[in-house]
């Protein structure tokens, strides 16, 4: 990506829904080059008033749960009903290569062929914070480009679920049939985040077991759901392969969105997400400034040792560290 970019022209291409413009805009917001950040922020400022109109859905599930098959099938159904669907991904472990882009495209073969679909694989990068930021910003871009449904896919491991749940309206968990004991294997944290749960692969010989799992999960959700919210997470079965139950799953996604509208209200819901995001950004940038300042890293190691040997108290050490940090940050280039 060149250093000089005509941000106004790029915004125009995005608003016109031009694919090459959308791709370039996302590449710009993903760029780790400090010189690109002010340009990315200017671009986003121009696009922001045109964003926010999409139904934002997060999708999680262990590898092999059927996320791509589900997205392919559901995306095509939505397009048949006149929607425009964008698929983004958050996978902090992804090392982006031409292969993985092709991989995502072939995994969602039918959807990838549609003019009404835009599929973008996860940006590469080891920091979840960076990947999550790029994906949030990509969401603004695809919404401004006219996509009215955004599906953000993530793999059911680690902290990426929390990040995705914080950027979507509805978080959908695709589960697989398993016995009661194995149900324990689904992390409680992920169940707590789920707004809708679908047990996938409920077809053929597997259908009965999937129904049993759905019933068990439904009972588990009674305990997990926060009573004060007044909402119970619906659990159902589906088959991304045959299409059975997919409309019901999407119906539950829409029902959750209506529930937001009727209770807290979508604007408030998203504003709360922005506040949390602001603090996450501040925390992330503060940590980046620490990591990129060698003196602070050294001081940190020295203080760790001293506190470890009880030659300095934790409180004194933290104050010494913060005072030194405060002196050093004035020259730090915040992006
Ligand atoms: P992902 O890793 O979660 O994206 O899972 P994939 O969509 O790649 O699916 C993993 C495997 O499960 C593939 O071989 C799919 O064909 C298969 N699969 C996905 N959904 C279903 C389903 O509903 N029923 C059956 N029987 N197989 C499915």
Outline the structure in words.
There is one protein chain. With 335 residues, the protein is an alpha/beta fold. The chain folds into three domains: 50 residues, Up-down Bundle (Single alpha-helices involved in coiled-coils or other helix-helix interfaces), CATH 1.20.5.170; 213 residues, P-loop containing nucleotide triphosphate hydrolases (Rossmann fold, 3-Layer(aba) Sandwich), CATH 3.40.50; 57 residues, no CATH class. Helix content is 56%, strand content 11%. It is built from 15 helices and seven strands. The protein has a seven-stranded parallel beta sheet, sandwiched between helices. Helix 1 packs across helix 2, helix 1 packs across helix 3 and helix 2 packs antiparallel against helix 7. The radius of gyration is 22 Å and the shape is globular. The two termini are 18 Å apart. About 1% of the residues have low confidence.
The count of domains is: 3
* CATH-assigned fold name of the largest domain: Rossmann fold
Bound molecules: guanosine-5'-diphosphate
CATH superfamily of the largest domain: P-loop containing nucleotide triphosphate hydrolases
SSE class: alpha/beta
**Pattern of helices and strands:** HHHEHEHHEHEHEHHEHEHHHH
The CATH C-level class name of the largest domain: Alpha Beta
Named at the architecture level, the CATH assignment of the largest domain is 3-Layer(aba) Sandwich
Low-confidence stretches: 98-102
What's the pLDDT, averaged over the residues? 89
How many helices does DSSP assign? 15
């Amino acid at each position: 990506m060149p250093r000089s970019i005509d941000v106004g022209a790029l915004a125009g291409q995005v608003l016109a829904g031009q694919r090459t413009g959308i791709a370039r805009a996302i590449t710009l917001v993903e760029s780790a080059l400090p010189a690109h950040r002010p340009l990315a922020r200017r671009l986003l400022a121009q696009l922001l008033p045109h964003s926010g109109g999409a139904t934002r859905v997060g999708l999680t599930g262990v590898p092999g749960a059927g996320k791509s098959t589900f997205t392919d099938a559901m995306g095509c159904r939505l397009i048949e009903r006149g929607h425009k669907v964008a698929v983004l991904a958050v996978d902090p472990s992804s090392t982006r290569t031409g292969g993985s882009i092709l991989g995502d495209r072939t995994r969602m073969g039918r959807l990838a062929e549609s003019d009404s679909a835009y599929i973008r694989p996860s940006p590469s990068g080891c920091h979840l914070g960076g990947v999550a930021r790029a994906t949030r910003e990509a969401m603004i871009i695809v919404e401004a480009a006219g996509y009215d449904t955004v599906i953000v896919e993530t793999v059911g491991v680690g902290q990426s679920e929390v990040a995705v749940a914080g950027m979507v309206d509805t978080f959908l968990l695709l589960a697989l049939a398993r016995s009661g004991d194995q149900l324990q294997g689904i992390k409680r944290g992920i169940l707590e985040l789920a707004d809708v749960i679908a047990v996938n692969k409920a077809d053929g010989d597997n259908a009965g077991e999937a129904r049993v799992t759905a019933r068990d999960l439904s009972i588990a959700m009674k305990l997990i759901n926060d009573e004060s919210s007044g909402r119970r997470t619906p659990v159902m079965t589906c088959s991304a392969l045959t299409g059975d139950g997919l409309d019901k799953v999407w119906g539950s996604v829409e029902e959750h969105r209506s529930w937001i509208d009727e209770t807290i209200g979508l604007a408030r819901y998203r504003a709360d997400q922005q506040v949390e995001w602001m603090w996450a950004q501040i925390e992330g940038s503060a940590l980046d400034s620490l990591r990129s300042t060698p003196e602070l890293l050294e001081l940190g190691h020295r203080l760790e040792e001293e506190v470890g040997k009880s030659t300095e108290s934790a409180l004194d050490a933290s104050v010494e560290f913060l005072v030194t940090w405060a002196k050093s940050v004035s020259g730090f280039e915040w992006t």
